Amino acid sequence: MGKQKLGFFSLYATEVTDSYVGSLLVTDEFGIPLEFKCTHAVKPTAIQRSLYGDKLQPYVAITLCGIPLINSIGNKPDMLFVNIPYILGIRPNIEISTLLIRRAGESINLQSDEDDSEKHKIESGLYQAVILQTHPSYKEEAMRLNGEINLLFNNFDLIEPFERMKKSVEILGKSDSKFK
Question: Could you list the pLDDT tens digit for every one of the 180 residues in the chain?
Fold first, then answer.
């Protein structure tokens, strides 16, 4: 395994303004940041909320935030981790292997557990085990990447970058109104 670039993408709801901020962190194989980008707050109108219904958050995450962020970064990741099930829908739109990651034992939206995507448990002696899940159309990715992810999971906790991104988005929201 050569030098790996790992992407971590998520969507965060702002606390005050009913809007969303997309955030993308690219790290090396040890979790050291190489690049961080996030969107300005995306604030859907009441009409948009009504018209999009339960498709609003996936649309904001994938179309308005995720694809533009991925297209704008200089450090293209070798694989992308997401922490919200509907964000797996980004995979058909990008050329990067994408995996939903969550801690083993965490509850997750039942809808995503009933689909036919591939799930794998990864354990490390250092961190709480994680479950990886692929997009249903890319089931082979989890098996193909299993060995690499096992090695990476011994380098650092693969869930922790999402906590860093959330904290960074919160800091931006407090210091700049474009992120509220």
Answer: 458 999 999 999 987 778 999 999 999 999 999 999 999 999 999 999 999 999 999 999 999 999 999 999 999 999 999 999 999 999 999 999 999 999 987 655 444 444 556 688 888 778 888 999 999 999 888 788 888 888 888 889 999 999 999 999 999 988 887 776
The pTM of the full predicted model, rounded to 2 decimals, is 0.90
Q: Match 């339960």 to its residue by tokens.
A: 54
Residue 126 has, within 13 A of its CA and on its CB side, a CA count of 11
Q: Give the C-alpha separation, 145 to 132, whole Å.
A: 10
Domain ranges of the chain: 6-179
- Which H/E stretch holds residue 10? strand 6-13
Is 22 within 8 Å of 84 (Cβ atoms)?
no
The whole-angstrom separation of Cα 63 and Cα 59 is 5
User: Count of CB atoms within 10 A of residue 72's CB?
Assistant: 11
Q: Are 12 and 169 in contact (CB under 8 A)?
A: yes
Q: Cα(60)–Cα(66) distance, rounded to whole angstroms?
A: 8
